[in-house]
Amino acid sequence: MAQDIIIDIRNVSKHFDGKVILEDINLQIRKGEFVTFLGPSGCGKTTLLKIIGGFKEPDQGSIYLNGKDLTGVPPYERPLNTVFQRYALFPHLDVYENIAFGLKLKNVPDKEIDKRVRKMLKLVSLTDYEQRDVDSLSGGQQQRVAIARALANSPQVLLLDEPLSALDRKMRLDMQIELKEMHDKLGITFIYVTHDQEEALTLSDRIIVINEGRIQQTGTPADIYNEPCNSFVANFIGDSNILNGTMIRDRKVNFIGHDFDCIDEGFGENTPVDVVVRPEDIYIMNRNDSCQFNGVVRSCTFKGVHYEMFVDTEEGYEMQIQDYNAFEPGTEVGMLIKPQDIQVMKKDCVCNSFDAEVLDENHVTFLGGRFECKIPREFKAGDTVCASVAFDKVGLMDYADEGELVGRVRFPLYKGDHYHLEIVTAGEALIYADTQEVYDNRDLVAISIAPKDIKISAKK
């Protein structure tokens, strides 16, 4: 193991009530690094932090600290300290005694305790607050006390579980600056958990994007923002225009009805892809011959630093644009995108494909449902086959008793002229649907598929 690796996470998995919380997580964290676990609520980021801290045990896999296996080592014996979301301060102790509490438990000499506590008070800008009752402090001051208490024990790694989520926006921004300064001064490893993308981009040396218990992407804030590896990361980190496209050949991609030069290579020819263009990377102007495509402004909102506009293109797509210049609704405009501002990504899949079983010459079963369809003559009852369904052929209804299957919407993604949905069925299977209707995350929907839209083929 490299000498600068302090935390080594190997093949860590965790399940709860049959649900995957973490699946085969492998990650190395360097000494002195500020690493953020970023993802939506329930993605597994806090569980991973608790496993590192020793508050939970993985079902499989191991955590190594400086090459030592931490399996079975209780939290109080690990050279780590955790700052929780709710601070967990002792209301009957003043600020000084709260910070000193862990040191007294370890029987540190009084003189050393006083030295460390006063050092921590200075670090968190609370020098004159040592005798204050913690209940009299503001939320930001209480958070500083919790951080000082954790740092007083001189941990090799500081774990922070959404420590700023209870603060108002201004206080949160101020604390972000202070946390970054603390990290720079101390030089120890910080592992931070948040669902706030702006917070992650501001604080981190490296971001670990997690969704559904799996690492989606690891990289610097600039890497994550400018080079997202899939549509989830692109949609979760900042604002994006995410669109269906076709890679014509190296450095040439088609989307929104036009061919564009790009800098991406290695996708093959005439390959379906996803295309990401950030709103600030679309140049908007009065219509002229240099424009690549045209449209009409539908809305224009001042956002403090820039104007946010939504433009309906002549080809029927909606584009989100951020610009310092305002174009009023109804204005005909032209737009231009430079090659380096187009990010091409591989698609996870191009249609739904399920393992299925033939029931008879007119019926098949998959995803726990029974569907009518035309079965090719070469297949007979009992055969295992592949059932394919195009995304736009999956019918969705609001009433659960109207379809063959029931599921909950997960990760609705707008693709410029339609919504692309992930739907998790009652049996935890995944089906994708394209629709013009608007659905929110966790909406319950019924799923129906017409017989003519189910294509049966040999299982690969």
Structure description:
The chain is an alpha+beta fold and 460 residues long. It contains 8 helices and 30 strands. The strands form 6 sheets. It has a 6-stranded mixed β-sheet, with helices on both faces. A hairpin with a 2-residue loop joins strand 22 and strand 23. Helix 2 runs parallel beside helix 4. The radius of gyration is 27 Å and the shape is globular. The two termini are 40 Å apart. The mean pLDDT is 92.
Please outline what is shown here.
The chain is an alpha+beta fold. The protein has helices spanning 45-53, 95-105, 110-123, 139-152, 169-186, 197-203, 221-226, 231-236, and strands at 5-16, 19-30, 34-38, 60-65, 68-69, 80-83, 157-161, 189-194, 206-211, 214-219, 241-249, 252-255, 258-261, 271-277, 282-286, 293-302, 307-313, 318-323, 332-337, 343-346, 352-360, 363-366, 369-372, 384-389, 395-397, 405-414, 419-425, 430-435, 444-448, 455-458.
Secondary-structure map:
Blueprint (H helix, E strand, L loop, with lengths): L4 E12 L2 E12 L3 E5 L6 H9 L6 E6 L2 E2 L10 E4 L11 H11 L4 H14 L15 H14 L4 E5 L7 H18 L2 E6 L2 H7 L2 E6 L2 E6 L1 H6 L4 H6 L4 E9 L2 E4 L2 E4 L9 E7 L4 E5 L6 E10 L4 E7 L4 E6 L8 E6 L5 E4 L5 E9 L2 E4 L2 E4 L11 E6 L5 E3 L7 E10 L4 E7 L4 E6 L8 E5 L6 E4 L2
Parallel strand pairs: 3-8, 3-9, 6-7, 7-8
Antiparallel strand pairs: 1-2, 1-4, 4-5, 9-10, 11-12, 11-14, 12-13, 14-20, 15-19, 16-17, 16-19, 17-18, 21-22, 21-24, 22-23, 24-30, 25-29, 26-27, 26-29, 27-28
> Radius of gyration, Cα only, in angstroms?
27 Å
Query: How many distinct beta strands?
Result: 30
Spatially, the strands of the biggest sheet line up as 6-7-8-3-9-10
Task: Assign an overall shape.
Answer: globular
Largest sheet: 6 strands, mixed
- The proportion of residues forming helix, as a percent range, comes to 10-25%
Nearest-integer average pLDDT: 92
Number of helices: 8
Distance between the termini: 40 Å
Contiguous runs where pLDDT drops below 50 for at least 5 residues: none
Query: What structural category arises from helix and sheet content?
Result: alpha+beta
Oligomer: single chain
Percent of sequence in beta strands: 35-45%
